[in-house]
């Protein structure tokens, strides 16, 4: 029951190999992590899935349909990237409502969905505040709320916890996993942190030098550094 399929994907930057060839499926509702050292091709892979990069070779299928040439806004994906900041001068409500307004969702429904998602991420009552009035962990949860409120088919997370301090980072792992399970949303997570990957994931794609070295549930991975 694959939601997303990467078929024989390769990306070259001039003569530099970004990634590939790689091939894997993402199952409905699973939390899949791309794990590996800096430069192994995690971000390149995620950006190809998001439509921010076009592969040199290969195709991306979503629910069986070829989306390789579909532009990012039309891919039905929620994105939380490391440097994907909130709008600083907009309230939390307006930040979260942004994608729904773009999609011309009726006002009353926007209100209901924004309130519900802020509740799910554990931030009821913050809607009139500005991002600067929240802690780093709270802002990260708002970014997550903003990504999931549009009810995307797939959620893409690129090192979303890396700007947080160590203690908060650990706590947010559990929270993030909890939110993902509550929503039942298919999620692809990128990290170079093995503990993080093992604690959170249903399956891990272990990458090295642009290739997949292992792919499976954390308890079945072997010979790790
Ligand atoms: P990771 O996310 O695992 O750190 P990347 O996907 O960012 O890895 O990078 C994979 C490889 O592609 C690296 O060798 C990196 O230097 C190279 N690369 C990434 N982006 C570019 C780019 N815009 N131009 C040239 N090389 C790039
Ligand atoms: P990551 O944290 O994913 O490893 P980097 O900090 O390496 O990302 O890269 C940040 C940005 O620089 C990305 O947009 C990436 O595509 C680009 N980039 C990475 N490596 C290179 C490279 N060798 N040449 C040009 N651009 C690169």
Automatic annotation (TrEMBL):
GO terms for biological process: quaternary ammonium group transport. Its EC number is 3.6.3.31. Residues 4-225 form the ABC transporter domain. Keywords: ATP-binding, Hydrolase, Nucleotide-binding, Transport. GO terms for molecular function: ATP binding; ATP hydrolysis activity; transmembrane transporter activity. One of its GO terms (cellular component) is ATP-binding cassette (ABC) transporter complex. It is an enzyme of class 3 (hydrolase). The keyword Signal does not apply. This is Spermidine/putrescine import ATP-binding protein PotA. It comes from Oceanibacterium hippocampi.
């Amino acid at each position: 029951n694959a939601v997303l399929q990467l078929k024989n994907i390769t990306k070259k930057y001039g003569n530099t190999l970004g990634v590939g060839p790689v091939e894997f499926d993402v199952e409905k509702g699973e939390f899949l992590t791309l794990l590996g050292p800096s430069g192994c091709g995690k971000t390149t892979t995620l950006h190809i899935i998001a439509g921010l990069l076009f592969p040199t070779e290969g195709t991306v299928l979503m629910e069986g349909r070829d989306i390789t040439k579909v532009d990012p806004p039309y891919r039905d994906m929620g994105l939380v990237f490391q440097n994907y900041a909130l709008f600083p001068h907009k309230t939390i409500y307006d930040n979260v409502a942004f994608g729904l307004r773009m999609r011309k969702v009726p006002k009353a429904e926007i209100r209901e969905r924004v309130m519900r998602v802020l509740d799910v991420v554990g931030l009821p009552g913050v809607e009139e505040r500005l991002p600067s009035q929240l802690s780093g962990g709270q802002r990260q949860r708002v970014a997550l709320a903003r990504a999931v409120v549009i009810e995307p088919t797939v959620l893409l997370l690129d090192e979303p916890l890396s700007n947080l301090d160590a203690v908060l980072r650990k706590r947010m792992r559990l929270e993030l996993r909890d939110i993902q399970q509550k929503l039942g949303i298919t999620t692809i997570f990128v990290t170079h942190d093995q503990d993080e990957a093992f604690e959170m994931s249903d399956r891990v794609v272990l990458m090295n030098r642009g290739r997949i070295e292992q792919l499976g549930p954390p308890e079945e991975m072997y010979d790790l550094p």
